[in-house]
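Support request from a user on the community tier.

User writes: "When I paste my structure tokens into the form, the page sometimes reloads and wipes my input. The last time it worked, I copied everything first. Here is what I submitted, just in case something in the input itself triggers the reload:"
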């Protein structure tokens, strides 16, 4: 009970800090983006609390690194690619085999849909 109150207080503090510091003209914070992504994953893949928090921390780090690279083109693209590869490996350690299989199947479906869309666009342009 005490732990749930602490978690609730932490989430309230996090959300109030994010909403207070945001300006509609500025881009969303990495924490907010990661939280929304993880919330969707929680429902879709039935994540545990531990999985949810681990994935959240991974996503925040990944989003921050990608933004640094975008804002400073001199940074090596390889550094970002290596970090993403490392995060994918860590994700494999966090998720169950069933969850990973579900993600793999959804990715294959999206890839197939994207490919079909490209074919239709090429035909339309002819």
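"...and here is what came back when it finally went through:"
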């Amino acid at each position: 009970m005490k732990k749930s109150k602490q978690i609730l207080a932490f989430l309230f503090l996090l959300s109030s800090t994010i909403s207070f510091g945001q300006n509609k003209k500025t881009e969303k914070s990495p924490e907010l983006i990661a939280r929304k992504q993880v919330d969707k994953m929680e429902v879709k893949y039935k994540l545990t609390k531990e999985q949810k928090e681990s994935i959240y921390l991974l996503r925040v780090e990944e989003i921050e690194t990608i933004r640094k690279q975008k804002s400073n083109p001199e940074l090596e693209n390889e550094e970002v690619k290596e970090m993403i590869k490392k995060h994918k490996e860590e994700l494999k350690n966090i998720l169950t085999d069933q969850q990973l299989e579900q993600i793999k199947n959804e990715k294959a479906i999206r890839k197939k849909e994207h490919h079909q869309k490209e074919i239709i666009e090429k035909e339309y342009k002819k």
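Agent notes: The reload is a front-end session timeout and is unrelated to the input. Residues 96-126 form one domain. The mean pLDDT is 83. Escalated to web team.
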